[in-house]
Design brief:
- By secondary structure, the protein is α/β, with parallel strands linked by helices.
- It is 21% helix and 31% strand.
- The protein has one domain: 3-Layer(aba) Sandwich (Rossmann fold).
- The strands form 2 sheets. A 6-stranded mixed sheet has the order 4-3-2-5-6-7, with helices on both faces.
- Helix 2 links the parallel strand 2 and strand 3.
- The longest helix has 18 residues.
- The chain is globular, with a radius of gyration of 16 Å.
- The model has no long low-confidence stretch (mean pLDDT 93).
- It binds inosinic acid and magnesium ion.
């Protein structure tokens, strides 16, 4: 995309593919005895989920949740609201939350607490990106794709005001077009 708001590449398409394949193999090995229910957080995690799922060689199930914490702005408000809830009962299930990015960690903190209250056997997290040093609470991730600098990024599911989600790599977003 030729766009003056797109800065340097933070994670390339090749790096994403290699890491996602590795994560899928790890999940396949770790959950061989009791396949997980993948809970993807919309919309940001949709592309990661699709690629990750193809690398998991187990009869997994999927469900989706949508939460809103940002509106169209680029800073965390700390306020999380469930916009779309799950359809599958979590009782006794091994839940694996699939998240796009951990910034302050507030969204994940809310989700974990919310899902744990529904009686699952376990709740673990697979996050593609973690911003260095910004978490107010330990995000406690079982699987983590990449640690990245604390800049705003777009692509591979991540947006700025709903644009750039289809970019096949992760790029820095420049608010002031250069
Ligand atoms: P947190 O609650 O501050 O950890 O924010 C998590 C959510 O904010 C993510 O699931 C994303 O939807 C969004 N978010 C955080 N940082 C970025 C970013 O750099 N680009 C796009 N979305 C982001
Ligand atoms: Mg998100």
């Amino acid at each position: 995309m030729n766009d003056p708001h797109l800065g340097r590449t933070i994670v390339s398409a090749d790096e994403l593919a290699a890491r996602v394949e590795h994560l899928g193999k790890q999940i396949t090995a770790d959950y061989a005895d009791d396949p997980p229910l993948l809970v993807a957080v919309l919309k940001g995690a949709f592309m990661f989920l699709a690629d990750l799922a193809k690398q998991i060689d187990l009869p997994i199930e999927f469900d989706f949740m949508a939460v809103s914490s940002y509106g169209a702005a680029t800073r965390s408000s700390g306020v999380v609201r469930i916009v779309k809830d799950l359809e599958i009962d979590l009782t006794g299930r091994q839940v694996l939350i699939v998240e796009d990015i951990i910034d302050s960690g507030l969204t994940l903190q809310f989700l974990r607490k919310n899902l744990l209250a529904r009686g699952p056997k376990s709740v673990e997290v697979c996050a593609l990106l973690v911003k260095d040093g910004l978490q107010k609470v330990d995000p406690d991730l079982k699987y983590e794709g990449f640690r990245i600098p604390p800049d705003f990024v777009v692509g591979y599911g991540l947006d700025c005001a709903e644009i750039y989600r289809n970019l096949p790599y992760i790029a820095e977003y420049l608010p002031e077009a250069s």
